[in-house]
C-alpha cells in the first residue's frame, strides 16, 4: 500500500534508500562506496526532507517501508520545468509489480493539484531503471557529469513539459 510518508517513516526510508542503492548500482558504482553508505546519514537527511514542503510517499509491506518516492519543486531552474521527481527507490523483491507507476501517479496528481505544469527526473545513464522513465516518452533535456565514489558518471535529465499529458499516460498503465 502506497501512502504519504510521515516523520516516523524517515528511518525506513533511509534503510530502503541505502539498500536499494546497493542493489541497483551493484557493478556500476564502486562496491566500497556502496558498502560505506550510512543509514544514519540518510536518516538525518530524510528527517529534514519530511519536515519540508516535499511530497514523499512510502510503499509498506506489513508496516515496513519497502519503497519510497519523493517529488517537489525543480531544483536547477535550467530547463523551464517547475516540478521534479527526486527519487523512486523500491527494494528489488518489490519491483515490477506496479509500485513505480503508482508512485508516479500519486506524486504527479498532487503536483498538478498544486499548480505544477511540468516535471523532470535525473537518472544515471547506466541505471537499468532508466527504461521505466523512457516508457513514458520523456524529452531528453540535458545531461551532466557527477562523481560518485571517486568515479564520474553521466546523469541524464528527462522531462515532460506537459504534466497533464504524462498523468494520462500513467493512468492508462495503472
TrEMBL record:
The keyword Secreted does not apply. InterPro entries: Acyl_CoA_acyltransferase, GNAT_dom. It comes from the Bacteria. PROSITE patterns: GNAT. GO terms for molecular function: acyltransferase activity, transferring groups other than amino-acyl groups. Gene3D superfamilies: 3.40.630.30. Residues 1-172 form the N-acetyltransferase domain. Keywords: Transferase. This is GNAT family N-acetyltransferase.
Amino acid at each position: 500500500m502506497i501512502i504519504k510518508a510521515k516523520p516516523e517513516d524517515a528511518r525506513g526510508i533511509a534503510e530502503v534508500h541505502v539498500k536499494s542503492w546497493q542493489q541497483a548500482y551493484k557493478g556500476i558504482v564502486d562496491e566500497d562506496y556502496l558498502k560505506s553508505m550510512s543509514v544514519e546519514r540518510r536518516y538525518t537527511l530524510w528527517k529534514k526532507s519530511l519536515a519540508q514542503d516535499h511530497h514523499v510517499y512510502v510503499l509498506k509491506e506489513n508496516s515496513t517501508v519497502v519503497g519510497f518516492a519523493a517529488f517537489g519543486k525543480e531544483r536547477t531552474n535550467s530547463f523551464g520545468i517547475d516540478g521534479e521527481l527526486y527519487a523512486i527507490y523500491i527494494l528489488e523483491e518489490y519491483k515490477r509489480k506496479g509500485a513505480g507507476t503508482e508512485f508516479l501517479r500519486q506524486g504527479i496528481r498532487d503536483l498538478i493539484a498544486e499548480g505544477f505544469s511540468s516535471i523532470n527526473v535525473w537518472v544515471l545513464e547506466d541505471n537499468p531503471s532508466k527504461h521505466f522513465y523512457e516508457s513514458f516518452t520523456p524529452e531528453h533535456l540535458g545531461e551532466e557529469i557527477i562523481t560518485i565514489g571517486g568515479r564520474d558518471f553521466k546523469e541524464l535529465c528527462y522531462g515532460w513539459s506537459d504534466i497533464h499529458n504524462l498523468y494520462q499516460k500513467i493512468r492508462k498503465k495503472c
